[in-house]
Amino acid sequence: EDCDRWFHLPCAKEGGCVTEYITPYSSYCPEHCPEQDVRVIPEPGTECPICMEPVEDRRSYRTLVCPACKRAWFHRDCIQGQALRAGALYFQCPLCRDDDEFAVQMFLMGIRIPFR
Question: Is residue 81 part of a domain?
Answer without folding.
Answer: yes
